[in-house]
Amino acid sequence: MRKTFFLFIALLAGQLCSAQIKVQRLMTENLVNPVAIDALGPRFSWQLDGGQTRGVMQTAYQIKVTDEANHVVWAPAKVSSDQSMYVNYQGSALKSGQKYTWHVKVWDNHGKSAESLPATFGMGLLKADDWKAQWIGPAREEASRPSPLLRKGFTVNKKVKKAIAFITAHGLYEAHINGKRVGEDYLTPGYTSYNKRIQYQAYDVTNLLQPGANAVGASLGSGWYRGVYGIGTRHEIYGKDISLLLQINITYADGSTATVATDDSWKTSTGEIRYAEIYMGSTTDARKEQKGWSTAAFNDSGWSKAVIGNYPKDDLVATVNEPVKKHEIFKVVKMFTTPKGEKVLDFGQNLVGWVKFKVSGKAGDKIVISHAEVMDKAGNFYTDNLRDAKAQNTFILSGNGVETFEPQFTWQGFRYIRIEGYPGDIKPEDFTATAVYSDMAPTGSFSCSNPMINQLQHNIQWGQKGNFLDIPTDCPQRDERLGWTGDAQVFSRTSTFNMNTHNFFAKWLKDVALDQFSDGSLPHVIPDAFDNGRPTGGGGSAGWSDATTIIPWNMYLAYGDKQILENQYNSMKAWVGFMKSRSHNNLWNVGDHFGDWLFYTRNDDNDGSAAITSKYLIAQCFYAHSTQLLINAAQVLGKTDDVETYTKLLADVKGAYLREYVTPNGLISSDTQTAYAEALEFDMLPENLREQAAGRLADNIRRYGNHLTTGFLGTPYLCDALSKYGHADAAFRLLLQEEYPSWLYPIKMGATTIWERWDGIKPDGELEVPSMNSYNHYAYGAIGDWMYRTVAGIDTKSEQPGYKGITIKPTVGGNFTQVSADYETPYGKASSHWKVENGNFVLDVVIPANTTATVYIPTKGDSAVTEGGKPVTKAADQIAGYTAVNVGSGNYHFSTSM
Ligand code: BGC
Fold first, then answer.
1. Which of 91, 193, 278, 492 is the most exposed place for a label (fewest CB within 10 A)?
2. What's the half-sphere exposure (Cβ side, CA atoms, 13 Å) at 275?
3. Atom 9 in ligand 1: which residue has the minimum CA distance?
């Protein structure tokens, strides 16, 4: 190792400017002003903004929490601490349905202090008894299952101070009060393991109520609960009947209260939604609309009485994750007619959501909209890859002038639509496509001097938008859309860079633990839409079940949240226990595994080019990896006995791997990229065999003409293993490869999302087999993690997770002249912008307040580094090829000659 230097920049304490600090972005349970949570000791977090001042650290904080009557419920003394994430509420017991307000005051190391604006949080209905509402549903249903409407009139005769609606459903619901939609969430109550728990939503509906006569109503859809779901045409996974549970808790200005709740006084009918299924699409018949059905003036005398359903209420939980909302709206970029004569609109982006349009025609005119991701080789509308998902929305006109349609209780994955039965000429401007996904805050951006890589980043982000729809799904278009565990773990770390997926995964991981089989293995999909709690087989695949160890650890690294590890610990341990129980002499070489799913194969593989990695070899690597992550979690949680037990187990598992699969010279029995990448990333090899393994990996890639050959389980580790062991050049060659198989090949073929297969569209325009060919599958987008963490170089220090300690360590390569990444860490924005200019390397860095960072500037030999034009002072030792500088928060401008 070369002897180099470790340098320090003087922390310019308040020298540049003496602006005030700010404290902002107050979160309760990682949400901004949530209307209802059910954590009894909620966790408070906030951010400091140090303005232009460098090296700002919080030195103390003081929190105050008050109730609705402005009584203090928690006001601990000032605490000397730099903790600004997850401070646990420890005041008097928080009450069901009550709203609380909190403030925080912070002090910093420059003698400044700041007080926050108030933040609020509401408590949910904490006990089953707090629900006065009863489950209600339609009296009887027609076989075609039109969407039931449920409604009730009520009177408000005093001034309303506050009204909160708590709502959930078996199935999906959309609620209305006085003709207005309640909230802006879609596909509520979202998807959990319904046989174990159902989330409810809470909305502040104070402004929807009016003096005098009011009405509340809801429409229901089959959704995940009883619709067609779980591959093919399976249905009624969780139940046969759909039902609604709704309760409005009203507090009047005079302090008195009232409740409006679902019971048998509600009335039911059906309206214009005649059919709605996730996979199949929907039918809307505007002639059947019951105008004003959720207003007080509506006459419901012809409606039937709603029927009470005898369902439990002790499985109801407040919503943890951000609900699904509407996001980007796309206009038509092209209208064309296919060789078959189909009228097609192109929205220019493969997206997930639905199409809204305006039309006028005669009563009974029927328009059918079909959805597709691609056109086939001949240029015709292609839906074979949707398999059993019909993905068709049908609209029947009322004939009353201009009508606007959009489907309900369904969604589609598409870029193109085919329109049939449209009366008159189609006007593209009358159609828009709305992207719909979980409302997670965007957190990251990555761009560079290579436009194809920028398109790759775009595609990764759209893969995420399309597949983070309340649960992490494999794909959003065909008869699947399931919470495939393997796909989720592969992409989980990348996902944190693009959006805040903290609560999204925290919620899903609870279902992982709940649906875990009693033997410790995991169903392949969560929620378990296949076995639904019955361990009839199907589970325990290496790399899939490891979602239960990998994702909590990734979330801990990204968000520094120990609670995720605490909550998942037993599940992590049970999974490692499963692998141990199936092993002989520490070798796990039994069971069914998906292996390196969709790895490189060729049709005419005469010379044996396919990259087959033994499934059991992969299983052994994941056995070790999960055991390591369990040890890590045990260390964080102070479980020293477990650290000892599993450290011993890990040594045995690695020993067995070496004996079974590796020659003394380090040749791995499956001589593939996946085998070497996993061996290196999971530390399977002794120190002395690592460099040669990296060499073999680089050689293998060269032998394949600088192509990757990996599938789902090798791809996420490939570039990282290469760059970590001195082969960054090979990693960049892979990244920039444009021929199949590669990340850029689909981009050359016009992809706007990540594909399931490396060759979804073949070079000659033929499409891959329809049985497994999604054009919106995020797994291979896992390269995004390497782009952020290695190319831009923004990472957390694992010993200071959640970016409390940051490293900025760019990797120059790929002929990039410029790379810019911004990342919203839990503490605020961190940036790494680098460029190569006139023989100089220039690096602009932003480090958020209340964190510290080590910035590594790539340097050759002893070349001098400046910051803001001044030389940085030498102090100690340094890493090969970089000059390392410790800094506090602030903006920095580094420069060195190359
Ligand atoms: C899914 C995958 C999944 C796989 C498991 C597929 O049908 O779409 O992405 O991980 O099955 O084999």
1. 91
2. 16
3. 474
